[in-house]
Write a structure and sequence with these properties.
It contains 4 helices and 7 strands; from the N terminus they run βαβββαβββαα. Strands 3-2-1-4-5 form a 5-stranded parallel beta sheet, sandwiched between helices. A two-stranded antiparallel ribbon has the order 6-7. β6 and β7 form a beta hairpin.
Length: 183
């Protein structure tokens, strides 16, 4: 079993316009591609075949097997194939090139993990099991999403306005009473 990933400090990457590669054309690759597009990535997908649904995504499709040169100039790579040899090659190539890689359903071949996300305007809630059970993380994400207030964006806007007003007055927000934001 893989050692847990030490994610004591969560990181959110800004992918808007950044070059990302997905290796694989199956259902899992499609789901990963859709999520990356939602984050604004400039996406290339390499696979000899693509499931239905890729036609609807704004991605560059390359219809062939993965080649090591495919990772050149990519910020990060997702390996989502059903071929362990390809998964290993992608992981090894990315390791040598210093590129972040996630191998779907294979925590041993990941330099980062993708948590289950809830996005509501500027709010992002991430749930992770450190790759041990994506299904559990997804169910927990759904439960958390259902508990979020319907007017979440308005509450965030009000809190942001209050914060900016304090900064405009030259005050610190450290000592402000922020309780009740979710009540």
């Amino acid at each position: 079993m893989a050692e847990p990933i030490d994610d004591g400090y969560p990181v959110v990457l800004r992918l808007s316009g950044r070059p990302v590669l997905v290796v694989g054309g199956g259902a899992i690759a499609l789901r990963k591609a859709a999520g990356l597009l939602a984050a604004g990535a400039s996406l290339t997908v390499v696979s000899p075949a693509f499931v239905e649904g890729f036609d609807e995504l704004e991605v560059t499709r390359v219809g062939r097997r993965y080649e090591s040169a495919d990772i050149v100039a990519k910020l990060l790579v997702i390996a989502a194939t059903n071929d362990p040899a390809v998964q290993q090659q992608v992981f090894d190539d990315c390791g040598r090139a210093g590129i972040w890689v996630n191998s779907a359903d294979d925590p041993d071949r990941c330099s980062f993990i993708l948590p289950a996300l809830v996005r509501r305007g500027p709010v992002i809630v991430a749930v992770s099991t450190q790759g041990r059970s994506p299904a559990f993380a997804g169910q927990l994400r759904d439960r958390v999403a259902a508990s979020l207030p319907a007017d979440l964006e308005q509450r965030i806007d009000a809190a942001a306005t209050r914060r900016q007003e304090a900064h405009d007055r030259g005050e610190s927000t450290e000592d402000m009473d922020w309780t009740g934001l979710l009540d």
